[in-house]
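During the no-cost extension, the postdoctoral fellow (Dr. R.K.) reprocessed legacy sequence entries with the updated structure-token encoder. One reprocessed record is reproduced below for audit purposes.
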Amino acid sequence: MSVETAADPPALGGEADPEVLATMVAAESVLSRRFGVRIRLTEPEDLGGSRRSCVVRVRVAESPFSLPKTLVLKRYLQPPDEHCDSFVREAASYQLFTALASEDRMCPELFAHDPVSRLLVLEDLGRAPTLADKLLGDDARAAERALLSYARSLGRLHATTAGREADFDALQRRLTVPDFKDPLAIDGAAALNDLPDLLSAELGVVTSVAVLECAERSRKLLETGRHRAFSPSDSCPDNNLITNRGVRFLDLEGGCVRNAIFDAAYLRVPFPSCWCPFALPNGMTDAMLAGWRAEVRVVWPDLDDDSVLLPALLDAQLFWVWLTTWQFFSQPHAAQTHSTLPSDTPPETHVLTDRWRRLADDALLAGSDAVAEHAAAVGDRLRKRWFDDDPILAVYPAFRR
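Re-encoded structure tokens follow.
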């Protein structure tokens, strides 16, 4: 049934941001077409978004259907004639999970979407705290529980979506196929190719053949058909809500299917897509990896074998450290950007130096002496370049008390 969209705009009450108004108008139109009758939205609350998108919480003021009382709208702001991979990835991601049983849905439910206005109409998960809120708070036990819940939820997300790559690809094809299957495809390859020369030029550190071989193994992880599952790509602490139904993942602009080992290594770095993380307390990473592993062993029993998991984990960790180092020196506009954590965060130079220190320590424990020696050399040069002493990255505020 075709539906006429009312010409009168939503009642906003007072001054309204034009993008917020445009997002509400688009949402009313999309929902009205979706359900076949007029649906009116009101009481917008700007949730921040980014320079690329407008994110708004609205109240459903008029609807004959059992829609929730509130919804979250996300509209991408790129010009219509520009290709928008982020919308395609996010729309396909939410569709993938909305099709699952509610207990397997690790993100908000998708109620409607529109590729023309590049709009998503999503379930409102309320004012639940994020993982960042817990880590920046003052309750160490709550922060620890949140981290462990996050790790297990990440593993459950992987276990639930293993074997669904064809479904995800089909959902993307219904919109527009992204330029690249994996957002890491371009920058990741560039980092692996260019970082050795960059380290030599910037720091005077030579990359040995043995380390280059490890880097090549990490490249193959991107391409392998094993252990593939959905990845949120940017699972920083402020993109994860701690709800009474468990952790829910937000901001799926980079959603894709890739080797899940990269997300497992995300726990080790930690949070490599962020430039504002503090350190985790001793033993926390091991506990998080154990929680992740407990979920994925159901679909990948071989990952219960340390001889399978640990070498791949080190390769993926090396990949993240190389990628972020390459970004820092080659793309400072992309690398040196904080997330939305409302706290005094450590400088990027401190974060990067600590990533090389952790890589050296983990490589040594794994028996990869070449990687350990190389990482230690890079970390030492970075410290001498930026610091007068040997600083230790502080743990998150919740663990300092």
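The first strand starts at residue 40 and ends at 46. The two ends are 60 Å apart (CA to CA). The remaining legacy entries will be reprocessed before the final report is submitted.
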